[in-house]
Design brief:
The protein has about 350 residues and is mainly beta. The chain has one domain: YVTN repeat-like/Quinoprotein amine dehydrogenase (Methylamine Dehydrogenase, Chain H, 7 Propeller), CATH 2.130.10. The protein contains one helix and 28 strands. β23 and β24 form a beta hairpin. It is globular, with a radius of gyration of 21 Å. It starts with a helix and ends with a strand. The N terminus is likely disordered.
């Protein structure tokens, strides 16, 4: 019995040691040094919203009444609205989501229209809002049943609509239950990344003359607002994108797209769940970018940002950056820690990071 126990202990120690080495190898990732850009779509469509499906296909929204899906195996693109919504409407979509084999897209400008597209291809208009100021910027889901979309103020607060029944119905949150918007505070429909979700927690980035974080700990039931030090004060400034790696570590980027090389205070970071933020890489590139995403398995250290000025990467939580490419993109979503989809003006590409 003693010899059997000894063998078991040795095996256990060896097994634990092996696991630790694997874990250490995973943590000690090699820094990204290059990106290969593989085009998968070229057409006269501006694409600012993408979502990755569980099978690594891509859903994307653009102008010219486009909500489409790219099949990664067949390399085929299918406009899910074609023949089901009149082309004469000429709707532009800058916010899409995919959950539970269902695709959602909400249009910009008046009237706002939110479509639900089932796996079988059935298209249903599930929400419509008519207002001279209506403009929805982003959409995301907490789970298969509950989702949220946000947009510019129509009254005295940021517009927020929520579903609790899988997207069949949506209700607009009353301004009585939301922080009052500051003068000139709105948001940018630049990359469908104004909303970040971790578990039940939600962060919404606003921009313009005021640029703040709206925070909910309970899937949109209650809201708080936090100030940020990002550049703000005129209509084109503020946060354009926010992402959270976990419930504590988040990053936001933006600036002023009309002065895209200005980099004084366009990158901010939080380590306390968004309550406080600090400017990082002050007076250092990159300047204006429209989208930021944490690299999966990057331990809240690795970030990639994209914009019409190119692609940049950080492996120290945003303190320093490496410029990877001048290629213009508006938005990016990771498939895994070395592969992502990116989209922009007339293009979609697969990005291979090495």
């Amino acid at each position: 019995m003693r010899s059997i126990i000894s063998i078991f202990i040795v095996l256990l120690l060896f097994s634990c040691g092996t696991s630790k080495k694997i874990e250490e190898k995973k943590v000690a990732r090699k820094a990204i040094s290059t990106v290969e850009i593989v085009p998968i779509f070229n057409d006269s469509i501006s694409i600012r919203a993408i979502a990755v499906t569980p099978t690594n296909d891509l859903v994307y929204g653009g102008n010219k009444t486009t909500i489409a899906q790219y099949n990664a195996k067949t390399k085929q693109h299918t406009n899910l609205l074609k023949g089901k919504v009149s082309d004469s409407l000429n709707i532009s979509f800058r916010a899409v989501a995919h959950v539970n084999n269902t695709t959602f897209g909400i249009s910009i400008v008046n009237p706002a229209m939110l479509f639900k597209i089932s796996k079988d291809g059935k298209v249903k208009l599930v929400y419509k809002e008519t207002h001279e100021k209506v403009f929805y910027d982003a959409i995301a889901f907490w789970n298969a049943k509950e989702g949220i979309a946000m947009g510019d103020p129509t009254d005295g607060c940021i517009s927020i609509i929520i579903t609790r029944d899988g997207g069949n119905t949506w209700q607009k949150v009353s301004c009585d239950n939301l922080p009052k918007a500051k003068e000139g505070e709105a948001a940018f429909a630049a990359s469908n990344t104004n909303i970040a979700i971790v578990g039940d927690e939600t962060w919404i980035a606003t921009g313009g003359k005021a640029s703040r974080i709206l925070y909910s700990a309970d899937k949109g039931q209650t809201w708080k607002v936090y100030e940020t030090p990002i550049v703000q004060g005129i209509e084109t400034t503020g946060m354009y994108s926010v992402d959270f790696y976990d419930s504590k570590n988040g990053f936001a980027i933006g600036g002023d797209y009309t002065k895209a090389d200005v980099n004084e205070a366009n990158k901010i970071r939080t380590s306390d769940g968004g309550k406080t933020w600090q400017v990082v890489a002050k007076n250092s590139n990159p300047g204006y970018r429209s989208c930021v995403q944490y690299v999966p398995n990057g331990n809240a250290k690795e970030l990639v940002v994209v914009g019409f000025k190119g692609i940049d990467y950080s492996n120290d939580a945003g303190n320093t950056w490496k410029h990877l490419s001048d290629k213009s993109f508006y938005t990016i979503k990771f498939i895994n820690d070395s592969t992502a989809y990116a989209a922009g003006q007339n293009r979609i590409a697969k990005l291979l990071f090495r």
